[in-house]
Design goal:
447 residues, alpha/beta, 3-stranded mixed beta sheet, 34% helix, 18% strand, SuccinylArg_d-Hdrlase_AstB, hydrolase, AstB_sf, N-succinylarginine dihydrolase activity
């Protein structure tokens, strides 16, 4: 067994960060529609989180934003002329579609891909599959750049395999690591890969929500497990509770989070809680680990409070001494029921003995907390050496990116500003410089 470290690749918020309310089923996103955003503050809040966690000794890296606006999308659906003409006509005829082309949602890198570490795969390489995100127009083309970025960061095919996204049909709706968790005794040892889904395409009798869409299918999860060459004895598939999807739990990471051998979850997270726990215990026995389940009862924290505070959209991180810290948004401390529960959790003598909180209000208002912002990648020493080094968070990189944000990002952005051709030029110039900062020439196709 090789030793390994788990890197968190946090999404760097892009300069077009705005509140368009495009994500039906995401209560926070929908409730802030058309309000003014602050892209500069959003990026700085995310960078502060990355810097702090890196300073605490956690392995931290940056996932660069995607190019916006998406002129390719706008031209494919009939908006023609100069770039300025395209923006003006799109704003005049369909401002919602223009907002889709400007979406900064790639900041939530938990949706970028599903990752299986080399200890789990058939060929001993780390495998990545970019999520197709086909449930929402504004996210449905992200996989193109996600694949390109992942192949730039993990280019050495001796160590890494980056797969294309699954077919963009409803049968293979895939939302990435937001519906995937890995359990293990150590990051370098064999683990159990846990996939959750909201519906089954080819079984209409299977549980499914009635109000909001289920974005992940069982068929997509099974396809990724095949692509990555996972051992069926150490792979678990679980149905989300459709009732909580209809309460705003659009991804499993809004109602559960796991790390090491710990599952921190709400009692209403799964369709059949007992069966899920039994399956995880049996699979973990294969790697000589025992599941530690931290269950939060509805009487203690209601689903509505969990969604409003993003209690479970937290990062559960293993510290050097083997205990765990829970990285939470500031909103958790402002919700009375959640704050009281967290005090009791830390004092309970269980695996979680520290809370680390951050102000991520700009992200939270758009519907994403700490866990949404990061993609977890467990890497061996050889794999760390083989990946692109320019994205690893350091004090020097942090200082450079803070200055870059100050140079290019606006501090106020309203829906009407998306029609401004100057904003498109600012976004393009920002990403050209960012690719140089990160040492990733050719990362973007800005033509």
């Amino acid at each position: 067994m090789q030793s390994a470290r788990e890197f968190n690749f946090d999404g760097l918020v892009g300069p077009s960060h705005n509140y368009a309310g495009l994500s039906f089923g995401n209560v926070a996103s929908f409730s802030n529609v058309k309000s003014a955003s602050n892209p500069r503050e959003a990026a700085l809040q995310g960078l502060a989180k990355m810097r702090e966690l890196a300073a605490r000794g956690f392995a931290q890296a940056v996932m660069p934003p995607q190019a916006r606006p998406n002129f390719r999308l706008l031209r494919r659906i009939g908006f023609t002329g100069t770039d300025a003409d395209v923006l003006a006509r799109a704003y005049r005829e369909s401002p919602v579609i223009l907002a889709c082309a400007y979406s900064a949602s790639p900041m939530w890198t938990a949706n970028a891909a599903t990752v299986s570490p080399s200890a789990d795969t058939f060929d001993g390489r780390a495998h990545f599959t970019a999520a197709n995100l086909n449930n929402k127009l504004h996210r449905s083309e992200e996989h193109l750049q996600s694949t390109r970025t992942l192949r730039a960061l993990f280019a050495d095919e001796r160590h890494f395999a980056v797969h294309e996204a699954l077919p963009p049909t409803s049968a293979f709706g895939d939302e990435g690591a937001a519906n995937h968790t890995r359990f293990c005794a150590t990051h370098g040892g064999k683990g159990v890969e846990f996939f959750t889904y909201g519906r089954v395409e080819f079984d209409p009798s299977a549980p499914a929500p009635k109000k909001y869409p289920a974005r992940q299918t069982l068929e997509a999860s099974q396809a990724i497990a095949r692509l990555h060459g996972l051992d069926s004895a150490r792979t678990v598939f679980a149905s989300q509770n459709p009732d909580v999807i209809d309460q705003g739990v659009f991804h499993n990471d809004v109602i559960a989070v796991g790390n090491g051998n710990v599952l921190f979850y709400h009692e209403q997270a799964f369709h059949d809680e007992g069966a899920v726990l039994n399956s995880l215990r049996n699979a973990l026995a294969c790697v000589e680990a025992e599941l530690t389940a931290i269950r939060v009862d509805s009487q203690v924290v209601a689903v509505g409070d969990a969604v409003a505070s993003y209690l479970f959209n937290s990062q559960l991180l293993t510290k050097p001494d083997g205990t765990m810290a829970l990285v939470i948004p500031q909103e958790c401390q402002e919700n009375r029921a959640v704050a009281r529960y967290l005090e009791e959790l830390v004092a309970s003598g269980g695996p979680v003995d520290e809370l680390i909180h951050f102000d991520l209000r700009q992200s939270m208002r758009n519907g994403g907390g700490p866990a949404c912002l990061r993609l977890r990648v467990a890497l061996t020493g050889a794999e760390i050496a083989a990946m692109h080094q320019g994205v690893i968070m350091t004090e020097a990189l942090y200082d450079t990116l803070v200055a870059w944000v100050g140079k290019y990002y606006r501090d106020h952005l309203e829906p009407k500003d998306l029609a401004d051709p100057q904003l498109a030029l600012e976004c393009s110039a920002a990403l050209e410089e960012l690719s140089r900062i990160l040492g990733l020439p050719g990362l973007y196709d800005l033509t």
